[in-house]
Design goal:
Layout lengths: L22 E6 L5 E6 L5 H13 L6 E5 L8 H12 L2 E5 L9 H13 L8 H14 L8 H4 L2
Parallel strand pairs: 3-4
Antiparallel strand pairs: 1-2
Helix pairs in contact: 1-2
Length: 153
């Protein structure tokens, strides 16, 4: 839940259980162009490499830089192997310094997604949460927007 309150000296217990997991790999630009995918299973280096490979084959008209953090799948062997291929197609990888999530604008997107776009009632079931997440991500840049200048330090 994004927020809550309780009386002083009151114990509040919210039962929870791990039912399902939704993993997201997503990229955004400051003008709200979003690319990504969701998965109910773990995102692997192979999933990510396949996604970036398909992205590198799309005509873009100019070089594209993908900013990544230092997650182990971002630095995996397959990513290192494919990097020269992607660079020959105009897709370049740039790694943020360690411990610098404040430099990753996708972190702002995740914060807005969780805090504003997904409503408390969307958490009532796994299906409604996954649907709301997919709906919101599909709407980025058309009916949902993040004002990244508002979040700049």
């Amino acid at each position: 839940m994004p927020y809550g309150w309780q009386f002083r000296d009151e114990d509040v217990h919210i039962p929870s259980q791990k039912i399902a997991r939704l993993n997201i790999f997503g990229m955004t630009t400051r003008d709200n162009r979003y690319e990504g995918f969701t998965s109910r299973s773990s995102i692997t280096a192979e999933n990510l490499s396949d996604f970036l490979d398909r992205l590198s084959l799309r005509p873009r008209g100019r070089n594209t830089v993908i900013v990544l953090d230092n997650a182990s799948i971002h630095r995996s062997g397959i990513m290192k192997e494919m990097r020269p291929v992607w660079e020959s197609r105009g897709l370049f990888l740039f790694y943020l310094p360690p411990y610098s999530p404040h430099l990753n604008i996708a972190e702002t997107l995740w914060r807005v997604l969780k805090g504003k776009w997904i409503r408390p009632q969307d958490y009532l079931s796994t299906d409604s949460l996954f649907y709301a997440t997919d709906r919101a991500l599909a709407s980025v840049g058309t009916s949902l927007f993040v004002n990244y200048s508002h979040y700049a330090a």
